[in-house]
Task: inverse folding
């Protein structure tokens, strides 16, 4: 079978927030093809690879015609004839053609989407799932961390300061049951909110986003919902937070608007210690801001043997920043987002780097998504054991969970569920 690239086309499509994003089709000489679409963040880290936006009047400046043009005019002619499974060569060539350190010439949204679509085309040629193409020996299904209450930038700053409150059904026997438990808690939470007269409108990732008086309140509402749904908080379903604190960090101060508090790094750490004592929290992401390296070290000293501490904006899926974090013992886990770094090859490198030192790896969607479910396959292929992809509602989120159900079905009996072992630091 001739798996060389015959043609590739990029176009502008829409994401879940009504913003344009890049979609790419890669066609091979054997008649098979692969398609991928790029997600987009709202609480983006300042060290992420560049997402190229047009900045003109179309879509209020948010168009991606320049990135589309970069694929069609600059990248496509150079990739034609290359073998689709030569992923690392293809990614290296695109990095080289771009020539910048942060993919600023073509845009990570251009480069990544080609990279993902190429992997898909190669998987189609082998007639296997993308997960199996990336690793023929994969069987571990992740704990789905479902973000059921949204705040921060994802709820237009109308709810909590903290951005994400997730439930992790660590005690479920298998992945489908974990999803069922999560959905039941999600529906129960809706009635808990209704009973309290709180809004059941949802944020960007499908979680409820009512106005709340503190950052403890959503955790407390979720614990009530877990209990009312008939599960045991902590043992069966634990809490996972992403405060996304870079978004409320100004002049070396963490500003908790809902509580009228202004905290220094050390005080913010105390705040988390107190919260971990009160709620069944097993993981906190971006507890501190993206360049508060000293704070992260202190945080890891104090909480790192108890819970998982995940760097998102801190590491931006960048092997260089992850290496620094490992050397300085700044965290014990990394969040993985393909478009923060911009190629499949570099994303896999980032995951392996973290796994080699025993860190947790949680694969993540972005707040702006499409129905592309690449991350579901990637999570299984690399045995990451954890995925966060929003609430079990909204098509673009559910599609990832549904793909994991399909992967489980194809892998069949050999499948296992990460459960508690998915979180190395769960006490
Ligand atoms: O902070 C995060 O982890 C992500 C995804 O939940 O949000 P965004 O895509 O807006 O950066
Ligand atoms: Mg985050």
Result:
């Amino acid at each position: 079978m001739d798996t060389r690239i015959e043609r590739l086309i990029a176009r502008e499509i829409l994401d879940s927030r009504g913003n344009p994003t890049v979609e790419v089709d890669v066609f091979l000489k054997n008649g098979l093809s692969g398609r991928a679409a790029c997600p987009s963040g709202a609480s983006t880290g300042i060290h992420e690879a560049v997402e190229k936006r047009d900045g003109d009047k179309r879509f209020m400046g948010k168009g991606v015609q320049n990135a589309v043009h970069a694929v069609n005019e600059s990248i496509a002619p150079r990739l034609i004839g290359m073998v689709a499974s030569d992923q690392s060569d293809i990614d290296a060539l695109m990095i080289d053609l771009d020539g910048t350190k942060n993919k600023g010439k073509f845009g990570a949204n251009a480069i990544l989407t080609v990279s993902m679509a190429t992997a898909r085309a190669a998987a189609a040629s082998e007639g296997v799932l993308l997960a199996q193409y990336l690793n023929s020996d994969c069987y571990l299904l992740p704990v789905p961390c479902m973000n059921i209450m949204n705040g921060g930038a994802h709820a237009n700053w109308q709810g909590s300061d903290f951005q994400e409150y997730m439930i992790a059904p660590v005690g479920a026997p298998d992945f489908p049951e974990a999803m069922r438990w999560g959905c039941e808690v999600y529906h129960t939470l809706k009635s808990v909110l209704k009973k309290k007269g709180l809004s059941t409108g949802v944020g960007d990732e499908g979680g409820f986003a009512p106005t709340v008086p503190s950052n403890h309140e959503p955790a407390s509402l979720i614990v009530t919902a877990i209990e009312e749904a008939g599960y045991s908080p902590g043992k069966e379903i634990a809490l996972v937070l992403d405060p996304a604190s870079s978004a409320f960090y100004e002049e070396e101060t963490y500003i908790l608007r809902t509580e009228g508090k202004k905290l220094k790094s050390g005080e913010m750490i105390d705040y988390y210690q107190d919260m971990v004592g009160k709620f069944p929290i097993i993981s906190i992401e971006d507890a501190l801001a993206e360049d508060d390296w000293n704070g992260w070290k202190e945080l890891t000293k104090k909480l790192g043997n108890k819970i998982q501490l995940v760097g998102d904006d801190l590491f931006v899926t960048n092997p260089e920043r992850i290496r620094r974090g490992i050397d300085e013992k700044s965290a014990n886990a990394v969040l993985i987002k393909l478009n923060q770094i911009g190629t499949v090859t570099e994303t896999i490198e980032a995951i392996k780097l973290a796994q080699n030192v025993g860190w947790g790896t949680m694969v993540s969607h972005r707040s702006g998504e499409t129905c592309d479910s690449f991350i579901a396959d990637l999570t299984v292929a690399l045995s990451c054991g954890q995925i966060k992809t929003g609430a079990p509602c909204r098509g673009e989120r559910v599609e990832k969970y549904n793909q994991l159900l399909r992967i489980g079905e194809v892998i069949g009996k050999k499948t296992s569920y990460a459960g508690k072992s998915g979180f190395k630091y769960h006490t």
Q: What stands out?
A: Residues 75 and 94 are 7 Å apart (CA to CA). The chain has a mean pLDDT of 97. The radius of gyration is 21 Å. The chain has 13 helices and 16 strands.
